[in-house]
TrEMBL record:
Residue ranges of every copy of the G protein gamma domain listed in the record: 32-97
Organism the protein comes from: Carlito syrichta (Philippine tarsier)
Annotated compartments: Cell membrane
GO cellular component: heterotrimeric G-protein complex
Family: Belongs to the G protein gamma family.
PROSITE patterns linked: G_PROTEIN_GAMMA
Domain of life: Eukaryota
Bilayer topology term: Lipid-anchor
SMART domains linked: G_gamma, GGL
Pfam families (alphabetical): G-gamma (PF00631)
Name by which UniProt lists this protein: Guanine nucleotide-binding protein subunit gamma
Amino acid sequence: MIPELKAFSYNSSLKLEIAFSPPPPSEHSSTAMSSVRALQPVEEQLKLEAGVERIKVSQAVAELQRYCMQNACKDALLVGAPTGSNPFWEPRSRSLL
């Protein structure tokens, strides 16, 4: 049986705090310990995600628009690729018989 999640919160320093209620005394077996071990990667992932610096969506969109506008002149889908240097065309070879 998986231990019941008792508390899940972020404190003021953005540290993740997870508290599990202990399983009933009759379940202190290898299955209870294996379920706790199975939850450890989840806990590590949550701690990792809690430490990620977040920005507002509006700021991310503005930065993405600015990047696209600055690099539009280099985008082959917008300006087209020069016919002589298109890397996706197969080189034509002429064979002599």
